């Protein structure tokens, strides 16, 4: 059993899906480190991650996942590229969110024995779920569907669902045998998976 400190926008939904994805990628049981932290939205994650990871390290946790949605557009929040200058992206309110999160991870968490990864699905976690569903995107690529509300409605339908119901539907999708092969074709998922495989 591997314990992972997970900081996500809403741990009861996003966090649980990331925990499950870690299990699938690593092939081991993963439990989320239980703490008093309750994250609420991307800005909160960005602000609290440093303290959260310090407390996790104090508690003996050595693995961490930090994730927020991209919420980007055609001219802002563009996908991460390896040649990004983190300082420049961090100062830009419309900068790259992978770089934002990289900057929030304390230096002690950047070397062994600590293992961390940052995850920014494009544009929301529902983008990945729709890719598994084989959804027909009218845009040239799934990454170019930017509207959060449309992504969520396409994924879960018009009726409001409880977070438990959304979690159940999402986990069913992630449990499909072809889920990882389909996701692995998208650069945002490759970025996540490659970090975890390096643990
Ligand atoms: Zn970046």
Question: Any overview of this molecule?
Answer:
With 199 residues, the chain is an alpha/beta fold. It is built from 9 helices and 4 strands. The protein has one domain. Helix 1 (11-26) runs parallel beside helix 7 and helix 5 packs across helix 6. The two termini are 15 Å apart. Zinc ion is lined by residues 80, 84, 89, 96, 98-99.
Put simply, the count of helices is 9
**Spatial sequence of strands, sheet with the most strands:** 2-1-3-4
Backbone structural class: alpha/beta
Q: Characterize the largest beta sheet: strand count, sense, and whether it forms a barrel.
A: 4 strands, parallel
Q: What is the number of beta strands? A: 4
What's the overall geometry?
globular
The whole-number mean of residue pLDDT values reads 95
Strand % is 5-15%
Distance between the termini: 15 Å
Percent of residues in helices:
40-55%
Give unreliable regions as ranges: none
Ligand names: zinc ion
Instruction: Write down the Rg.
Output: 16 Å
Order of secondary-structure elements: EHEHEHHEHHHHH
Total tally of structural domains: 1
Which characteristics define this entry?
single chain; alpha/beta; about 200 residues; four-stranded parallel sheet; 9 helices; binds zinc ion
Task: Summarize the topology.
Elements: E1 2-7, H1 11-26, E2 30-32, H2 42-58, E3 63-67, H3 86-91, H4 97-104, E4 115-119, H5 125-133, H6 148-156, H7 163-174, H8 179-183, H9 187-197
Parallel strand pairs: 1-2, 1-3, 3-4
Bound molecules: zinc ion (ZN).
């Amino acid at each position: 059993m591997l314990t992972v400190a997970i900081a996500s926008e809403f741990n009861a939904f996003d966090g649980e899906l990331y925990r499950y994805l870690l299990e699938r990628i690593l092939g081991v049981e993963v439990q989320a480190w239980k703490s008093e932290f309750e994250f609420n939205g991307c800005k909160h994650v960005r602000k609290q991650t440093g303290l959260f990871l310090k407390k996790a390290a104090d508690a003996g946790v050595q693995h961490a996942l930090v994730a927020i949605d991209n919420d980007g557009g055609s001219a802002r929040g563009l996908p991460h590229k390896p040649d990004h200058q983190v300082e420049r992206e961090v100062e830009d309110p419309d900068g790259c969110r992978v770089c934002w999160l990289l900057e929030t991870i304390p230096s002690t968490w950047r070397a062994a024995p600590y293992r961390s990864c940052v995850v920014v699905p494009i544009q929301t976690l529902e983008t990945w779920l729709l890719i598994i569903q084989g959804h027909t995107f009218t845009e040239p690529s799934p990454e170019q569907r930017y509207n959060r509300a449309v992504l969520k409605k396409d994924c879960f339908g018009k009726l409001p669902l409880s977070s438990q119901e959304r979690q159940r539907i999402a986990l069913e999708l992630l449990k499909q045998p072809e889920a990882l092969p389909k996701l692995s074709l998208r650069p945002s998922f490759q970025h996540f998976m490659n970090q975890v495989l390096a643990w």
